[in-house]
Amino acid sequence: MSSYKRISERIEELRIDNPRNATSGLRWVNVNNAGKAEINYLRKNYNFDLAHLRSIAASILSQRPKIFRGSKYLFLILHFPSIKDGRIFSAEVDFFIGHGFLVSAHNNNLSALNQFFSISKKDPNSLASYHIESSAILLHEILGNLINDCYRLLDENSLEIKHVEELIFSRKQKSAVEKILLLRRNIINIRKIMQNHKNILKELSDMKSSLVDKSVIKESYNKLVEDSKRLWEMLDNQNEMIEVLNNTNESLTNTQMNTIMKTLTVFSVIVFPLNLLAAIFGMNALRMPLVEHQYGFWLIVALMILGALFMLAIFKWKRWI
Fold first, then answer.
1. pLDDT for 293-307, tens place per residue?
2. Are strands 26-32 and 101-106 parallel, antiparallel or unpaired?
């Protein structure tokens, strides 16, 4: 029968055992934030290579996915996007896959993996690996769940893109710019994280298992390859959409700026005759016309108004306003 055991604060073990099968069952060990104690446990119970164990506890993430095929187990490093405070970052997960066991290790950044482990321990019968107790099938289920979580992130991006569109056409360009920059950054990060998945999944499709026919494994992982391709296509579409919205936002901002500059220019030109007349009659030269007239002030004001109206008429005639 299937059973769950918490080995330590950071290590959980789910034993998947279908009594109808003649096999000895399958163990899934999930390690969060591996440290020295966790490395010692895995070294003692599974005899993994020390270099691989050190990599799961390293503070610096691996810069690219890796796959190592040993005589007793397969070691795999993959990256998946995770979100925190609206920003996408790379979360690393390491797998040790061998006959009758699978070990997953990550730094608690992949909530989707922990959630899937919790669901599995509550209802192990729902797992395909319960019916076929193969670590290759269990790995396929885990990766499928993590890839499905990527769709959730892309759906959130789509909602944000729609919100940006509403901001742009509501003339809230400043708010739109901030969201566009964040979306572009998130999309670029997801693309960087996911760009090598297709090749790794193709390599995994060649895995061998004594419990499962090779064609079944190949077909299962080929579906993940197709999911990875669809993710990439969605990312391309979102990238194009955000570029279009960015160009639209820039065009509206430029149009708004041009309108402001046009208004200021028209205002300054209309006011020009007023300034000119004020400067001329302000020179205090002898025998200035109209200055000593009893209605001189009002005559000068009338000249200023006529000059402004004349400039306004020219702008109207030229259809500049």
1. 677 677 777 877 887
2. parallel
Kind plus residue range of the DSSP H or E element containing 103:
strand 101-106
- Candidates 5, 18, 50, 33; CA nearest to 137 is 18
- Triad 71, 77, 81: Cα angle to 5°: 160
Listing DSSP states for 147-197 in one string gives HHHHHHHHHHHHHHHHHHHHHHHTT-HHHHHHHHHHHHHHHHHHHHHHTTH
CATH class given for the domain over 3-252: alpha beta
The pTM of this model reads 0.78
Which residue spans within 225-289 are E strands per DSSP? none
Provide mean pLDDT across the span 190-213. Answer: 80
The H-or-E segment that residue 233 falls in is: helix 214-280
- Which residues contact residue 112 at a Cβ distance below 8 angstroms, ignoring those fewer than 6 apart? 80, 145, 146, 148, 149
Encoded tokens for 203: 């390599």
Residue 28, pLDDT above cutoff 90: yes
Tokens representing residue 61 in the block = 């993430």
Q: What is the edge-to-edge ordering of all strands in the sheet holding 11-16?
A: 3-6, 11-16, 26-32, 101-106, 87-98, 73-84, 66-69
